[in-house]
């Protein structure tokens, strides 16, 4: 008998787990590394309870957002509900009824991810929800290095510097875009937020480069 925990991984999952970044990656320039902008919309805001509704990714290469690389998925959920989250993202049960099975979406997502750096805004929640989905279907966790543009902004922008106040709130995407006079594209859609986050990320990296007098390396970014 083969016990469930000893069964071979799906090829896509095995390939994802086998992809290993260079041990010297932290010293590499950002423009040399694979970057995936990521945003997810979910059924709510509780980790371990709420589920994935939509997922969007866009690649960044050589400090350029590759619009043609954009991919998005709508995820079928058996029991979608109308709650406060729907008022934010506007994704209705009628939308998710026509979505793809979560396992299929996660397999395609992992095949796109490999060893890329994940960049997102308030990305901790998104990756936690994706972790729950990965564990549910494949018994693995997302292993990629993650960069949160909210924390990056608090590192680089004087107006949002950490104060030491225990309840200091990280800036929202709207606050940062307003401060930097940047456009916001299709807010609260997975691809729109991913693209806007990419613009913010490149803006902040340019500021770091000017401050340091050299190209930005991965180790210059907060974990």
Automatic annotation (TrEMBL):
GO terms for cellular component: cytosol. The keyword Lipid biosynthesis does not apply. One of its GO terms (molecular function) is nucleic acid binding. It holds the Pfam family RNase_T. GO terms for biological process: DNA metabolic process. Keywords: Exonuclease, Hydrolase, Nuclease. SUPFAM superfamilies: Ribonuclease H-like. Transmembrane segments: none annotated. Residues 34-210 form the Exonuclease domain. InterPro entries: Ribonucl_H, RNaseH-like_sf, RNaseH_sf. This is 3'-5' exonuclease.
């Amino acid at each position: 008998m083969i016990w469930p925990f000893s069964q071979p991984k799906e090829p896509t999952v095995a390939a994802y787990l086998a992809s290993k970044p260079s041990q010297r990656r932290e010293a590499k320039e950002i423009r040399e590394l694979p970057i995936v902008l990521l945003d997810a919309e979910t059924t709510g805001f509780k980790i371990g309870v709420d589920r994935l509704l939509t997922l969007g990714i866009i690649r960044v290469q050589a400090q350029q957002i590759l619009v043609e690389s954009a991919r998005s998925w709508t995820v079928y959920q058996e029991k979608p509900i109308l709650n406060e989250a729907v008022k934010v993202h506007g994704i209705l049960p009628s939308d998710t009824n026509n979505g793809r099975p979560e396992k299929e979406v996660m397999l395609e997502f992992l095949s796109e991810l490999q060893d890329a750096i994940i960049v997102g805004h308030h990305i901790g929640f998104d990756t936690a929800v994706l972790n729950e989905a990965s564990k549910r279907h494949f018994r693995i966790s997302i292993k990629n290095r993650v960069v949160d543009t909210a924390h990056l902004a608090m590192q680089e922008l004087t107006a949002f510097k950490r104060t030491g106040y225990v309840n200091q709130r990280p800036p929202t995407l709207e606050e940062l875009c307003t401060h930097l006079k940047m456009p916001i594209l299709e807010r609260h859609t997975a691809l729109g937020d991913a693209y806007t986050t990419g613009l913010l990320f490149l803006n902040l990296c340019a500021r770091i480069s000017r401050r340091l007098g050299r190209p930005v390396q991965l180790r210059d970014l907060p974990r």
